[in-house]
């Protein structure tokens, strides 16, 4: 009986310790805030200078329907849910310059963090995303 109690106590203790080691109750806002703090951002004017210079991939990580309604001229589309799966097909060079954007900057911040972890070290987030670019009346399709 004493041995069974010791085993049960050990299992209970291990379960409690395992649960406390995991992050608890993270919300979407928490994840976005952490991503935004960890990645590099460019404003719409800096992004336009990069666009003018060329040699930069502009990737729209909004859904296909959003992309079809309008996007930065010349941008590629990879919806956020497919980014990690499709990026190597469209951008095989991990040292490529990439500006990732979405509607406002939340999804793209998460995407930039993933791409950095995958070795795409020259990836930045467009502050304000599509909204900022469109409002600035920069080239769109």
Automatic annotation (TrEMBL):
SMART domains: RHOD. The keyword Signal applies. Transmembrane segments: none annotated. Pfam families: Rhodanese (PF00581). Residues 1-20 form the signal peptide. The keyword Ion transport does not apply. Keywords: Signal. Residues 52-141 form the Rhodanese domain. This is Molybdopterin synthase sulfurylase MoeB.
């Amino acid at each position: 009986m004493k041995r069974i109690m010791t085993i049960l106590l050990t299992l209970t203790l291990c379960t409690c310790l395992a649960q406390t080691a995991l992050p608890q109750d993270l919300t979407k806002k928490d994840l976005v805030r952490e991503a935004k703090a960890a990645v590099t951002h460019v404003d719409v004017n800096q992004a336009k200078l990069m666009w003018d210079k060329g040699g930069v991939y502009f990737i729209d990580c909004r859904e296909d329907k959003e992309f079809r309604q309008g996007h930065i001229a010349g941008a590629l589309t990879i919806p956020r849910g497919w980014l990690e799966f499709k990026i190597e097909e469209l951008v095989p060079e991990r040292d490529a310059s990439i500006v990732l954007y979405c509607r406002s900057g939340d999804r793209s911040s998460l995407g930039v963090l993933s791409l950095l972890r995958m070795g795409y070290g020259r990836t930045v987030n467009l502050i304000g995303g599509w909204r900022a670019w469109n409002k600035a009346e920069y080239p769109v399709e």
